[in-house]
Design brief:
The complex is a heterodimer of chains A (482) and B (125).
Chain A lengths: L7 H10 L4 H19 L2 E4 L1 H21 L10 E5 L26 H8 L3 E6 L19 E2 L2 E5 L5 H8 L5 E5 L6 H7 L2 E4 L20 E5 L2 H11 L17 H5 L7 E5 L9 H16 L3 E5 L7 H16 L19 H12 L2 H13 L5 H25 L2 E5 L15 H5 L6 H5 L3 E9 L5 E8 L4 H11 L4
Parallel strand pairs in A: 2-3, 2-6, 9-10, 9-11
Antiparallel strand pairs in A: 1-3, 4-5, 6-8, 7-8, 7-12, 11-13, 12-13
Helix pairs in contact in A: 2-3, 5-6, 7-16, 10-12, 10-13
Chain B lengths: L4 H10 L6 H18 L63 H6 L6 E2 L2 E2 L6
Antiparallel strand pairs in B: 1-2
Helix pairs in contact in B: 1-2
Classes of the chains: A alpha/beta (482), B mainly alpha (125).
Chain lengths: 482, 125
């Protein structure tokens, strides 16, 4: 079976024509997993049995539906993987952390439930930085995920497992979370489409919280069209997540057919400064050129506060993280400490010492410090105010242009270990994806060719809140996996 | 600003983290680097120093406020089930529990000892 060029639509056509069954497809993907996962480490847990059993069930349903002349569900029989911070009923969910190495959730996250109800088949749980904190998946307690284009390099992060899996045909799509770039950056490193939705567009219920005011739920796919189809299923109000607005979910597929004539594209000059690799700038400018030749209006704009977004992020998100991870105390969540402890305080500390990795400790420490008495005004409140300044700047720009286009990452995939000793250097990997996160905007990473070393480059499209349709409209015109 | 080892130990205590001396030393450098780096935010005028109004803080980016739900009793302990007190084992579609009692299903999630349908933890006092 040729997995390379499959789409949701082509799979459904094949099911209808009887070319292959869902079980065939699941087995084909699982074969890829068993062939490549040892080296690439994209999956933490593979659910072979569950996936095959589910596929058999789906095959029966498909047969019944075809006989009755009924339509297939939107994702009927589509195999996928989930980042290991999505709660999956009965299937271990580690958060990439030792502290929850044995956690088996008693329920499904809302997004997982919606995918299930639409007929998608879960293959397993994918690797990520511990509690989604990182830009390289090197901070996973389950080992680094390697880049499918060069195994000496990282796949990006934090959702590195999903990006790697989709690039290497270990499932047709994968869920991810993007708090400060954790979908777009690995997507660009691995040559796949990575969607970060508007804050609140997809329910966060059942996904382990990292930074609650930034966290968004998105996904990786091979094509923009498939990205739109998956969002059609996951988007919308959920009464279990009060940040999901009661707002209509548009027909995303319809936006794929719209042309870009007259569409105004802003190119922010701060995203093309000297810190960005030349080849990356060239590829992204070529993509913008393509749209211009299709009739889009291209305009250079300026977002001077871009450079402050990362600093805002590294005050606000560690603060939220340190509060959110308070529940990992080995009573509510997490494994008991290895050694016997004297009292409750000692019990908490020992469990967290055993269970948390370095980056998590570092961020908890930062978050605790900047939100502690005496420092909260100087750091936390100041950052919240600068966040407002950044948001206003985006709002003003979107009065002039419809979307913004820029590189996803200042550089292509870096070598494993290259940045792990320097937290600030690692943080800068997200410098171009972070501002959109700060303002809760939607954005997408679109495959855009390779550099001279053969490493993938991604173009980022940023749109106003709840305008994912624009991302699909523009992205579908330029996607190029080579 | 340089964080002293004493400050690092104090923060660790607040955060319920146990750090050895080596970690205290390492974190005092790394956290200092990070705090020096975020100092750049002071370049941004947010207090209206130029005679303008100060900038408000943002904690919710889409502008939703006070989102409430109906205050109703949900007796079934299984998340996602909204049946009215089936105690488990009902056959409504939303209810995913198929055991005698949902509580048992939830108790199975803990790694701690369970006694008389309760989780046993260390004494607080």
């Amino acid at each position: 079976m040729e997995l390379e060029n499959l789409t949701i639509k082509s799979i459904h056509d094949a099911y209808k024509a009887g070319e292959f069954t869902c079980e065939d497809l699941v087995r084909a993907y699982l074969e890829e997993v068993s062939e490549h996962n040892g080296e690439l480490n994209a999956f933490i847990t593979v659910d072979d049995e569950g996936a095959i059993e589910k596929a058999k069930e789906i095959d029966k349903e498909i047969a019944q539906k075809l006989e009755a002349g009924e339509e297939l569900r939107l994702l009927e029989g589509i195999p996928y993987g989930a980042k290991d911070i999505f709660a999956t009923k009965g299937l271990r969910t580690t958060n990439g952390s030792k502290i929850t190495k044995n956690m088996v959730p008693p329920y499904d996250a809302t997004s997982i439930r919606r995918l299930k109800e639409a007929g998608a088949v879960l293959l397993g749980k994918q690797n990520c930085d511990e509690f989604a904190c990182g830009a390289s998946t090197e901070h996973s307690a389950y080992g680094v995920t390697k880049n499918p284009y060069d195994t000496a390099r990282v796949a990006g992060g934090s959702s590195g497992g999903g990006a790697c899996a989709v690039a290497k045909n270990m499932g047709l799509f994968a869920t991810g979370t993007d708090t400060g770039g954790s979908i777009r950056q690995p997507a660009s490193f691995c040559n796949v489409v990575g969607l970060k939705v508007t804050y609140g567009r997809v329910s966060r219920f059942g996904v382990t919280s990292m930074a609650s005011s930034y966290d968004t739920i998105g996904h990786f796919s091979l094509s923009v069209e498939d990205s739109a189809r998956v969002l059609q299923v996951t988007a919308g109000r959920d009464e279990n997540d009060s940040t999901t607005p009661d707002r209509e979910v548009p027909d995303y597929l319809a936006s794929l057919d719209k042309d870009v004539k007259g569409l105004k594209i802003g190119v922010p000059r701060e995203y093309f400064d000297e810190g960005v690799e030349d080849e990356t700038k060239e590829r992204v400018k070529e993509q913008i050129g393509k749209l211009k030749s299709m009739g889009a209006i291209v305009k250079e704009v300026s977002l001077p506060t871009t450079k402050y977004a990362m600093a805002v992020y590294y005050i606000l998100t560690p603060t939220e993280l340190s509060a959110n991870l308070g529940r990992f105390d080995a009573i509510r969540y997490g494994s008991a400490p290895k050694e016997s402890t004297e009292d409750l305080y000692d019990y908490y500390c020992s469990a967290r010492e055993d269970g948390f990795g370095d980056e998590i400790k570092r961020r908890i420490m930062i978050g605790t410090y900047v939100s502690s008495a005496g420092y909260v005004d100087a750091y936390y409140k100041k950052a919240q105010k600068v966040r407002t300044v950044i948001i206003r700047e985006f709002e003003k720009i979107f009065e002039e242009v419809d979307v913004l286009m820029a590189p996803v990452s200042p550089f292509t995939a870096f070598e494993i270990g290259e940045k792990s000793d320097d937290p600030v250097a690692m943080y800068m990997a997200d410098s171009l994806v972070n501002p959109a996160s700060c303002a809760g905007l939607c954005a997408i990473s679109i495959p855009s060719g390779f550099d001279s070393a053969g490493l993938p480059i991604g173009t980022q499209i940023i749109a106003p809140q709840f305008r994912e349709d624009l991302l699909f409209q523009v992205g579908s015109k330029i996607e190029d996996r080579g | 600003m340089k964080l002293t080892p004493e400050q690092v130990r104090h923060i660790a205590q607040l955060a319920r983290l146990k750090l050895n001396d080596e970690e205290v030393e390492k974190f005092s450098h790394e956290l200092t680097d990070i705090l020096d780096w975020v100092e750049m935010l002071n370049e941004v005028d947010t207090e209206g120093l130029n005679g303008e109004e100060g900038v408000p803080e943002t904690s919710q980016v889409t502008g939703l406020t006070n989102v409430l739900r109906a205050d109703t009793v949900v007796k079934c302990g299984v998340v996602g089930c909204d049946c009215d007190g089936c105690g488990g084992g009902c056959e409504c579609e939303e209810c995913s529990c198929d055991k005698e009692n949902c509580r048992e299903e939830l108790l199975e999630c803990t790694e701690l000892p369970v006694e008389r349908k309760q989780i046993k933890v260390k004494p607080v006092l």
